[in-house]
Amino acid sequence: MSENPGIVVIGGGLAAAKAVETLRAEGFEGPITLIGDESERPYERPPLSKDYLQGKSTSDDLFVHDEGWYGEHAVDTRFGDSAVSIDRDGRTVTLASGDTVHYEHLLIATGSRPNTLGIPGADLAGVFSLRRIGDSDQIRAAFIEAKKLVVIGAGWIGLETAAAARAAGLEVTVLEYAPLPLQRVLGDELAQYFAELHRRNGVDLRTSVSVTELVGTDGRVSSVRIGDESIPADMVIVGVGISPNAEIASAAGLAVDNGVTVDERLRTSDPTIFAAGDVANARNTALGANIRVEHWDNAIRQGQLAAKSMLGEAVSYDWQPYFYTDQFDLGMEYVGYASAGDDVVIRGDKSSGEFLAFWLSDGVLKAGMNVNIWDVNDDIRALIGKTVDPVRLADPQIALTELG
Fold it and tell me: Which fold has domain 116-238?
């Protein structure tokens, strides 16, 4: 082992890129190795189901750093050569190529992967999932030839790709197992709002249905079966959630439970190993609970936090989760962590397409959402955890800064 083995980061996504960037920004001068199973350098994933999928941006807009950044900052990159095992005793990572990399501290930022359908026909041509640049490229190319798209799953990816497909002129059917889209995240009232948004824009949204089979013709999907009905489909997008890529951590004997279990400093059960991003089930001190968050903002902030934590800085995971979406003419930001059964307060008129929504539990604000109203997210964030009068909260004549 070299005298200074440095820091190794497994994972070529946003959390990994921000960790490496922060290590150098904080003055770390030791060796850094960045390992990713994709051949591309780290990029941001949200546009893959939004602007990039619609052709409004290019791949150059996706990358976190310019191509030369890693060399200029003395980062040894191993793109396209995935990590296959961790030897905690020897403090080494073995790659698919057979190479071995030593570490003083290790960051696992391996992200997540799309869930698959365990039904007949799931492997037919024309059936897509969306996680990587190549996936988005294939889907966008398929939009050109296809006329009828079926989306299985009405989560964020499913609804965003449905909106993109409608913009491309396709007939779109969305199939959802739950009674409403996004019901578990937003609760009934706001879930119904998103259902109406899609139906208003020509999406055939069907809820409380189960897909039993994908039927093919000459090896390519041609229809989707729900019960006794067959829905014609030139292509299918599967958006039924994602699972953390925690296998390498589990095989190394680290604590794993719905992701790699880490404390508020993102340390695993091994004090030399950290985890960040989609794969990390982390202790959030603001919520007093372990949570695993699968969103862009969390990847950025946890990547930065992990870097500082590895350098011994006194930092912790103490912020509220944040995410956003763009669908049709709706732009939305959400901050906080609410339960579907919390009380909902609306400020403004939902029918106008511009309003705020808040979730309260026993009078305490748990989360807030701004829909087509901008520059208020910080004000909403400042109210989270405070006891708020719901009548005043609903009154648009009272400034958010006057509440709490």
Answer: FAD/NAD(P)-binding domain (3.50.50)
Q: How confident is the model at residue 3 (pLDDT cuts 50, 70, 90)?
A: low
Q: What is the pLDDT, as a whole number, of residue 1?
A: 35
For CATH 3.50.50.60, list the domain ranges present in the chain: 7-113+243-310, 116-238
Per-residue pLDDT for 2 more than 70?
A: no
Q: Is the pTM of this model over 0.90?
A: yes
Distance CA 403, CA 15 (A): 34
Provide mean pLDDT across the span 163-182. 97
Topology given in CATH for the domain delimited by 7-113+243-310:
FAD/NAD(P)-binding domain (3.50.50)
CATH topology of domain 329-402: Enolase-like; domain 1 (3.30.390)
